[in-house]
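Hi there,

I know you've been waiting on this one. I reran it after we fixed the sequence typo, so this is the corrected version. Both the input and the resulting structure follow.
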Amino acid sequence: MNRISQGISDVLELVFPSLCTTCGERLNSQEKYICFDCWHDLPVTNFHLNTENKVAQLFWGRVQIENATAFFSYKKGSRYQHLIHFIKYKGLKELGFETGRKFGFALADSERFNSVDIIVPVPLHPKKEQKRGYNQSRWIAAGIADVLQKPVIDKNLYRKSFTSTQTQKNRFERWQNVDGIFEVYDAQVFLGKHILLVDDVVTTGSTLEACSFPLLKLTDTKVSIATLAFADI
């Protein structure tokens, strides 16, 4: 049966070849989702090594964040925007996990992020998660956690109201769209913890800022931020 299955797989690969999600080139048998060249060329930021990086600056004067970083950056329309698009909208949640693991190895090089106690993905509203079938930030967080060996606490931070997409909004509109929509179920879970808040993309920081407010109201709780990508607009 193994030979038959392999034969069918080979035929399907000829008819429907696997393509790299970023550049569109055909993948070889050792590659999955993204080709080696695109992984090699990934525009990593190394923001985790710089306390005054572009992501950290988004929160200055707005909310008290311990550390903030993003794994890679992209410009609108770039091939690496496609990577995020496939994770977020095309069902490739496993790609979110694998990219999260690569991010985790980078974070492990920073003592500032090694002090994290728990990892919390930015929640989706239940209606949106049901429609999409998964929370992409949860899969990214799981990849990071797999490397850092920290627990992922899902669902304790929740989105209490449904909001429209942030994509076409300016900074002020983004903030209005998410102001006051996040809450915590069980405060005891987060008390005194250093929380790593994880999302897929940061643009203006409005969603992450809104997530941070209910967390920082808790006694001795600290928040750091890690996003897979920084939309350098």
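Quick highlight: The beta strands are 68-74, 118-121, 157-159, 182-184, 194-202, 222-231.

Best,
R. S.
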